[in-house]
Amino acid sequence: MSLTSEELNYLIWRYLQESGKEVSALALQEESRVLEFESKFGERVPIGTLVNFVQKGILYAESELMVRYDRESMSLDPGLNARDFNLAQALEVDKERVPELKAVQRFALEDQVNAGTHSPGIDSSDKIGGEDSSKFIKTLHESLRLPQSTVCQWNPKNTSILSWGGPESTATIATFEISDGKPRVLQETKCQHPLGISASTGKLTNDITCLEWSPSGESIVTGVENGELRLWTSDGKLQNVFNFHKSGITTIKWNEDSTHFLTCDVENVAIVWNSLTGTALQHISLKESGATESLGVDASWVGPEKFVIPGLQGAIALCGIGESRPLGKLNGHTKTITALDYNYETKMLLSGSDDTTLRVWRSGALSSSNCFMGNTLGITSAFWLDQDRVISTSFDGSVRVWSQSTNALLGLSMVDGIPIFCGSLSPDKRIFAIGKMDGEVCLYHIGKLLELLNDKSINDSTHPTPIPICGDYQHNIEGSYVNGIAWNASSTHLSISYSSSDTELIFVG
């Protein structure tokens, strides 16, 4: 009598299917051979087989109380038949016969690790990006709490300057002093927009919807609900005001040399601005007749004077500064564009969409060279890891790493089917942070994953490699989801914006 691990995987997969846990079943399907068993034995395995087998196992454990090893009956406890023998009691019976295996540091909390319960050779004080950090999941703690924000961004050059924006038409630029990983606010500057009537609610409000630092770190642009944009210096001095947009700003993107920036609003209007003169160089409107939905929530520069924006019917419009019409269209996606990332080294564009696919576009081509499929819900973020590999998150609760050269899924992680709202790759590209609907933030060790993928002796090309998790932070307020994550320039601190609670800073190390 025997039961192989593959057979057990199949029974678990059937149980997940029968229970309606489709996302969890899909994750197991990706990492095992359950489909082979389904085609061979699916019709012969009745519904509820796994639960039936577990119940029989409990009865078997109960029978061990009644019969000795030499098949002689044992005297029964008078109360045995009167009680409901359950799983916990069966495990107690089994523990008396088989020594318990000690799970050293498995699922250990940080305070347990510090108390000396972890295995030798692992120092709980190691940084997450260090060599030994991938051996355990570090429980992260709040370093500093800031006012609620809808968007939060660190200065790309100065690791101690953070800006956030939220209600009451105000963005804040703060300078921190960081000692032993603990930030302390030294100075705060308020960047105020005037109040205005919201087109969506009719109330007197003008919340900050978007802000973006220039690559040089010397300027920042803030955008609000009524479409106004303001340009500020890094110390909070107003430089210019831009008023051509008539609806909420969704995207602000600077070009490489910080001379121009591109803005998009919810009515699918894109404008290119000269940051030095404050003039609008280009106005592109891609409105569909009678349509009210946004074509996309991201844009990207693909050179100093060229950029891409979401187009009609899932297309991506390629535009140039000074051109009244798009230079071309990248056709392939069928729904809203949700993520765009350009690789300046390879000249390739990565795009994600609500149509559940990722696509890679080569310079000069109007059709995609790769189309990555496998997600069941829309893509929420996508980034280049290097010249070949990309990483993405989805509402289906998955994190996936793909190779554009082999068109293969290399890495996979499922987070219990909980939707992932956002993802952020650290500047050193060692850690990838995700924010979930339940308020939890998980950190993935990308550096360790790439080492595993490059090690051919342990890399199984037929199955995706599990992406190592190296850190976890759980928000303690229910009903508040993560709507934004940002790294500082040194990849040591993470800012987290929540839908209905304060902004939090986390020291990663």
From TrEMBL:
<keyword id="KW-0853">WD repeat</keyword>
<dbReference type="GO" id="GO:0006357">
    <property type="term" value="P:regulation of transcription by RNA polymerase II"/>
</dbReference>
<dbReference type="Pfam" id="PF08513">
    <property type="entry name" value="LisH"/>
</dbReference>
<keyword id="KW-0677">Repeat</keyword>
<dbReference type="InterPro" id="IPR036322">
    <property type="entry name" value="WD40_repeat_dom_sf"/>
</dbReference>
<dbReference type="GO" id="GO:0003714">
    <property type="term" value="F:transcription corepressor activity"/>
</dbReference>
<protein>
    <submittedName>
        <fullName>KLTH0E15158p</fullName>
    </submittedName>
</protein>
<dbReference type="Pfam" id="PF12894">
    <property type="entry name" value="ANAPC4_WD40"/>
</dbReference>
<dbReference type="GO" id="GO:0034967">
    <property type="term" value="C:Set3 complex"/>
</dbReference>
<dbReference type="Pfam" id="PF00400">
    <property type="entry name" value="WD40"/>
</dbReference>
<dbReference type="InterPro" id="IPR001680">
    <property type="entry name" value="WD40_rpt"/>
</dbReference>
<feature type="repeat" description="WD">
    <location>
        <begin position="201"/>
        <end position="232"/>
    </location>
</feature>
<dbReference type="InterPro" id="IPR006594">
    <property type="entry name" value="LisH"/>
</dbReference>
<dbReference type="InterPro" id="IPR024977">
    <property type="entry name" value="Apc4-like_WD40_dom"/>
</dbReference>
<feature type="repeat" description="WD">
    <location>
        <begin position="330"/>
        <end position="361"/>
    </location>
</feature>
<keyword id="KW-0539">Nucleus</keyword>
<feature type="repeat" description="WD">
    <location>
        <begin position="242"/>
        <end position="283"/>
    </location>
</feature>
<feature type="domain" description="Anaphase-promoting complex subunit 4-like WD40">
    <location>
        <begin position="201"/>
        <end position="256"/>
    </location>
</feature>
<dbReference type="InterPro" id="IPR015943">
    <property type="entry name" value="WD40/YVTN_repeat-like_dom_sf"/>
</dbReference>
<dbReference type="InterPro" id="IPR045183">
    <property type="entry name" value="Ebi-like"/>
</dbReference>
